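STRUCTURE:
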């Protein structure tokens, strides 16, 4: 597996909380205000704006179009142009921002020149024909570059005229909003008549409200909107209200955890459709307090199921789906056909992930039916959809073991989501596994070819910085930029492009040859990327590009050689890895890079999953040795009946490097292994498995971990040991004890396994009801699960004294009851975490071939 997606691990609230939180400004209002302020006359100040990726992207693209915008943390100042733009030739990338795509499609029709409007692969699957058809009727010149009806678009802008339009409103309310916002600068009347069932009608009301605030009069009804020729925008100060969609996640959290959460600065009088979400929670039984400037929700022990029409609040449908999963009965969410054309196919995604959590649900593509139950913690695939990430994260405040893939997706609408979640007491741990791969090197080394092959091999998106610079410049080549604007202009655009992409995750970034000459570029690229220098001799690069005419620095070969010599030390200095390309094929180079960025996944398999300290311990060790880009460790639940299938398939996959084995698999796993270490074979139990090219080899580090632990407290020769239990762990420890010359007595409820161990290692066995006699031994070791989940103890405190060493292989937060008894009698106490550490260090060395960093692992276990 290659470094791919980051993971957010969410820990449930230990008890209900009472909190007040402040939510950022509405993304929807911010984006509308930015477009309207651009078209207004004079300077407008937008206060409390959204810092979402979508809003910041719109600001960046408006700047690119020549709009004068100033911003700080609290406000944006837009200098409006009354719809009079300078000519612009170039490309705009809206990425996956649907609102930005629709709004700019209309706006760009006002701008003289030629604009390519494109986005992410998903954006190119989202229909825009309804908006394009309407704009064509107003005199626009728009052509589809790819599939008809979908982005990317080529827009030759200029003057539009008014008129009467009929538009299908069922696809997206944003089509209507985009047309409405440009209407006041067209200079003639425009009438928009909507046909079909209007999708997300409240967003139209928000658009009209924002237009009115900037002085434009709109005669509006449900199906008709009229903007007169004399309508126009005037600059103003505009305060963005709180985002109701973002607020939904936290009042939903209150609902499912019986908490009380107040959202400040939000009123039920808001025009945002998602404000109605609080009313749905009230129907489900929550207590909702509606203040003049706040909304407060208190959850209840049992939530009711409901049937709800979500047509006007589709963005909160995933949130309500999560609440419904915890409710009693069957909830039906209707009016959701447009969810299938959002950032992902949301209805399908909801069904898939809820089913994964153990919740029965189904969808017909227009609505979703959810049968409430007891959701379980799993790894949630967010499909890089911000709404999916935040909605499912809320479930983690109640259920154990929930993990969110690609947590950075929240930046699209709510960058501070995880911090806000932490503020109310939810523990969130984010592992960033999604570093970029950055290719550097002199021109002619093959960066473009390698980057494209690598992106295909690793299934990662690619950005060629030179291509992106050309798009943003409005020119046709690097050569033309150098000729007409000079290198300084090129380098400024290069800095801008690198700044934009370095902060993203999981990209292949292919840099121009001179990018490394600027320290800020390197700093940004290194923060979230591995820099790979593709090296080749100057003679090789010269041969490779001898027939190219687009390399301005190769016009003078001597100057090019001088530049090569100058840059070479910089490339070497900044590289995390150097790949010599002179005598390798592109395919061989890609394999070298892919192998160097591959991540080895290690697991601990157990049932039930519960809490395991192994991932924290091993991941801390990887980080301490700076190999966390090569290794990762996770817990995986495998039921006994699933073990055979897992051993035949999943656990042999190339990305599974090794796995630890714990209860209840240590003995049953033997028959599924291809090879067993001699010691493990003699013990008859395995706790460690290496995947060697699809062949599984078993080892046992339990015995040595236990012996190393005991040797910290005493010499073992001739000691009398009482072993409570006769499972795989007991078998391993007894193997070690007998090698040390100890006399072992076994106290067990399972006479069959006890007899087998006693026969092999020449021990004595006693029935479980005789276990209090264990106190006649020097050392007492508990390997049963008694006490791990409660305050039970396999022994009473009565027979324990200060001469005893009491070793409980179980571990949990705080000591087990057996160890509490031992401590009260001043006996020597040996916690199971010490054994976990000792055997884990041995496992680490088997996994990596490196000496385990004991201090880092010990700190991770808090011992």
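SEQUENCE:
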């Amino acid at each position: 597996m290659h470094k791919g997606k980051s993971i957010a691990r969410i820990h449930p609230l230990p008890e209900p909380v009472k909190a007040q939180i402040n939510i950022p400004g509405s993304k929807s209002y911010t984006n509308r205000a930015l477009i309207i302020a651009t078209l207004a006359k004079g300077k407008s100040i937008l206060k409390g704006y959204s810092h979402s990726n979508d809003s910041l992207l719109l600001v960046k693209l408006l700047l690119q179009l020549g709009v004068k915008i100033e911003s700080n943390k609290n406000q944006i100042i837009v200098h409006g142009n009354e719809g009079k733009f300078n000519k612009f030739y170039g490309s705009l990338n809206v990425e996956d921002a649907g609102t930005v795509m629709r709004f700019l499609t209309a706006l760009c029709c006002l701008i003289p020149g030629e604009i390519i409007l494109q986005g992410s692969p998903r954006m190119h699957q989202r229909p825009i024909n309804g908006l394009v058809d309407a704009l064509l009727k107003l005199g626009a010149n728009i052509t589809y570059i790819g599939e008809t009806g979908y982005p990317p678009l080529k827009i030759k802008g200029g003057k539009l005229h008014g008129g009467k339009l009929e538009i299908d409103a069922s696809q997206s309310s944003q089509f209507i909003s985009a047309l409405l916002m440009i209407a006041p600068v067209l200079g003639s009347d425009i009438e928009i008549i909507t046909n079909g069932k209007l999708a997300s009608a409240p967003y139209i009301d928000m658009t009209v409200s924002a237009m009115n605030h900037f002085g434009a009069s709109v005669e509006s009804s449900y199906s008709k909107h009229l903007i007169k020729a004399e309508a126009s925008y005037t600059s103003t100060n505009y305060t963005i209200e709180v985002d109701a969609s973002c607020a939904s996640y936290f009042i939903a959290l209150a609902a499912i955890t019986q908490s009380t959460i107040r959202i400040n600065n939000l009123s039920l009088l808001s025009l945002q459709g998602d404000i109605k979400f609080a009313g749905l929670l009230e129907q489900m039984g929550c207590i909702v307090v509606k203040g003049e400037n706040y909304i407060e929700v208190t959850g209840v022990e049992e939530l009711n199921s409901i049937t709800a029409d979500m047509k006007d609040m589709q963005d909160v449908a995933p949130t309500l789906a999560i609440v419904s999963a915890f409710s009693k009965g069957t909830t039906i969410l209707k009016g959701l056909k447009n969810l299938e054309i959002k950032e992902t196919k949301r209805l399908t995604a909801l069904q898939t992930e809820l089913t994964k959590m153990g919740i029965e649900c189904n969808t017909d593509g227009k609505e979703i039916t959810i049968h409430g139950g007891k959701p379980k913690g799993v790894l949630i695939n967010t499909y890089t959809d911000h709404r999916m990430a935040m909605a499912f994260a809320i479930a983690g405040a109640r259920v154990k073991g929930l993990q969110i893939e690609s947590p950075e997706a929240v930046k699209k609408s709510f960058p501070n989501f995880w911090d806000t979640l932490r503020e109310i007491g939810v523990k969130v741990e984010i592992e960033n596994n999604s570093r970029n791969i950055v290719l550097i090197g002199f021109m002619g080394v093959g960066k473009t070819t390698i980057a494209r092959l690598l992106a295909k091999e690793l299934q990662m998106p690619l950005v060629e910085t030179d291509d992106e610079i050309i798009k943003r410049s409005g020119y046709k080549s690097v050569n033309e930029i150098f000729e007409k604007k000079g290198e300084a202009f090129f380098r400024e655009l290069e800095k801008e492009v690198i700044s934009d992409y370095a902060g993203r995750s999981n990209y292949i970034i292919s840099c121009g040859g001179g990018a490394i000459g600027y320290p800020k570029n390197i700093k940004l690229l290194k923060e979230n990327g591995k820099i790979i220098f593709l090296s080749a001799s100057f003679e090789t690069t010269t041969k490779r590009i001898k027939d190219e005419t687009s390399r301005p620095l190769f016009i003078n070969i001597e100057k090019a050689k001088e530049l090569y010599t100058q840059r070479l030390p910089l490339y070497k200095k900044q590289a995390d890895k150097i790949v010599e390309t002179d005598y390798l094929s592109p395919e061989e180079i890609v394999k070298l890079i892919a192998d160097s960025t591959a991540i080895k996944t290690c697991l601990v398999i157990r049932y039930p999953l519960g809490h395991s300290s192994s991932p924290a311990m091993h991941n801390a060790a990887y980080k301490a040795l700076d190999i966390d880009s090569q290794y990762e460790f996770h817990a995986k639940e495998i039921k006994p009946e699933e073990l055979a299938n897992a051993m035949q398939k999943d656990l042999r996959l190339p990305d599974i490097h090794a796995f630890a084995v714990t209860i209840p698999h240590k003995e049953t796993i033997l028959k599924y292994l291809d090879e067993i270490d001699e010691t493990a074979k003699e013990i008859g139990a395995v706790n460690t498995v290496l995947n060697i090219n699809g062949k599984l080899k078993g080892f046992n580090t339990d015995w040595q971990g236990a012996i190393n632990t005991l040797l910290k407290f005493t010499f073992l020769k001739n000691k009398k040991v009482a072993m409570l239990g006769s499972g795989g762990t007991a078998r391993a420890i007894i193997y070690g004890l007998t090698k040390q010359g100890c006399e072992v007595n076994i106290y067990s409820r399972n006479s069959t396994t006890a007899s087998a161990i006693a026969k092999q290692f020449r021990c004595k066995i006693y029935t479980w009801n005789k276990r209090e006699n264990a106190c006649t031994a020097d050392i007492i070791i508990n390997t049963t699960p008694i006490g791990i989940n409660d305050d039970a103890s396999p022994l009473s405190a009565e027979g324990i004294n200060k001469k005893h060493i009491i070793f409980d292989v179980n571990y949990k937060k705080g000591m087990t009851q057996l160890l509490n008894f031992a401590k009260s009698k001043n006996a020597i106490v040996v916690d199971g975490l010490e054994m976990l550490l000792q055997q884990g260090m041995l496992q680490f060395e088997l996994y990596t071939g490196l000496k385990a960093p004991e201090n880092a692992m010990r700190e991770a276990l808090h011992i």
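REMARK: The longest helix spans residues 557-574.
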